[in-house]
Specification:
Elements: H1 10-18, H2 23-42, H3 61-74, H4 82-100, H5 104-120, H6 123-148, H7 151-236, H8 241-269, H9 286-295, E1 300-303, H10 315-335, E2 341-347, E3 355-362, H11 384-395, E4 399-404, E5 410-417
Parallel strand pairs: 1-2
Antiparallel strand pairs: 2-3, 3-5, 4-5
């Protein structure tokens, strides 16, 4: 979408050229100062510091114009060498004042050079410049007051010196401060934009990590169960010929789905942060989870002497415990089919740090039965479950450990902190 903009006028183009922050703007300013100063000389704005006209000899106007041209040429170096250009301007102005009592044209040149020096010189040079200008202004006012013995002349001289020396530098300082503030605001806006982009990126990464965990904990768990039971049916029911084709198709589809699911999980987990975000799943649904495992043929024993499952736990803690139990039962079915599993929940014993301790232990698998493999002899599990359980525990400030037991089984242990409140309070 385009909008029609009016063509810039001549005055608008001239203003942009004059105010341009480049070499062309400096040339334009110098030429403008020369033309304006020449006009002021022609109308007679000269001899502005003459106390006794007989002490000075009025020069030919051409000499004033020539001196003005030298001063305007010096202004061309004000950007690259501001202090050197100011020194040259002071010399030219002093010549004009001493020989010909000064002119308004040369005052304009001096103002421009003072403004440039205060705007573009370094901090040290600016401090020296301000100190010198203040001393000259006060010294000049005092000298005029002493010569005339008139308080009015002292005040008039002080105002005049201040207008010539201090006003252009004050103006330059004001412009520089506004420019610096604008630069800071632009940098701050850029930083805020980068922070917002990082926040959006972190939110996407967190959501991807949560999706990966839930895909693994819920869908992948059910697919593993389908693959395990279909494989068991194929191995234990060789006479079910009419069902064998369907079972083989179910198992092949389940294993293929698990492979695709693992690829999706790895993709979603790429650069994922460790955080406690996840889909709902509370510890008060533990009985349903255990019944589902028993329905699949696993002998599960639950031990909860402190009634942790029925306690009012923080939502994040209850959800993490639920998912860890779910993943542990799935691993037991896959790696130790037929082995008994014990799920134990207890309160931590340290008095100042309330915690829940979870242990899921399975016995050694029956002789001759190992972990599940697919039709090609490859293991169904990719080992992502251990990493997911560890991340869930550590994201809440807890600890996680898993490893073989002395009797040849496997044990998963997790300790999740609650709070330092009393046992009877809500966390």
């Amino acid at each position: 979408m385009t909008t029609d903009r009016p063509a810039p006028t001549f005055l608008g183009r001239l203003a942009r050229v004059w105010g341009g922050d480049d070499r062309r703007g400096d040339v334009t300013t110098a030429v403008t100062l020369f033309l304006l100063g020449w006009l002021l000389i022609e109308v007679g704005l000269v001899d502005i510091y003459s106390v006794e006209p007989s002490l000075t000899t009025p020069p030919d106007p051409a000499w004033r114009v020539l001196l003005l041209a030298v001063g305007c040429a010096i202004t061309l170096a004000k950007r690259s060498r501001p202090m050197l250009a100011l020194a040259g301007g002071v010399v030219v102005t002093a010549v004009d004042v001493v020989l010909w009592a000064g002119s308004v044209a040369m005052m304009l040149v001096l103002w421009d050079l003072l403004y440039a020096a205060a705007l573009w010189s370094g901090p040290t040079a600016r401090r020296w410049l301000w100190g010198t200008a203040v001393v000259l202004s006060l010294g000049g006012a005092i000298a005029v007051g002493e010569l005339t013995r008139d308080v009015r002349m002292f005040v008039y001289a002080g105002l005049q010196f201040g207008a010539i020396l201090l006003v252009p530098m004050w103006w330059a300082d004001n412009v520089r401060q506004k420019s610096e503030l604008a630069a800071v605001e632009r940098a701050r806006a850029d930083d805020l934009a980068r922070i917002a982009e990082l926040d959006r990126h972190e939110a996407v990464r967190a959501e991807r990590a949560a999706m990966a965990r839930d895909l693994h904990d819920v869908i992948a768990s059910h697919l593993s169960t389908i693959a395990i039971h279909s494989g068991a049916a194929l191995s234990t029911s060789p006479d079910a010929a009419r069902d064998r084709g369907a079972l083989e198709q179910v198992r092949t589809s389940a294993v293929a789905s698990l492979t695709e699911m693992r690829s999706m999980i790895e993709l979603l987990r790429a650069d994922s942060p460790r955080d406690p975000l996840a889909a709902p799943g509370r510890l008060d649904r533990l009985d349903d989870l255990l019944e589902l495992a028993r329905a699949g043929g696993t002998v599960v024993t639950a031990e909860d002497p402190d009634d942790v499952a029925g306690a009012d736990l923080p939502a994040a803690v209850g959800h993490a415990l639920y998912r860890i139990v779910q993943e542990s039962l799935t691993n037991a079915r896959k790696h130790a089919p037929g082995a008994a599993v014990t799920v134990r929940l207890a309160r931590g014993q340290r008095p100042r740090l309330r915690a829940v301790v979870l242990e899921v232990r399975n016995a050694a698998p029956p002789s001759g039965r190992g972990g599940p493999v697919d039709a090609a002899g490859l293991p169904i599990s990719a080992g992502t479950g251990m990493l997911t359980m560890r991340e869930r525990a550590e994201a809440l400030g807890g600890a996680f450990d898993a490893g073989p037991t002395d009797d040849g089984g496997w044990a998963v242990r997790a300790r999740l902190p609650l709070s330092t409140q009393d046992e009877g309070g809500n966390s």
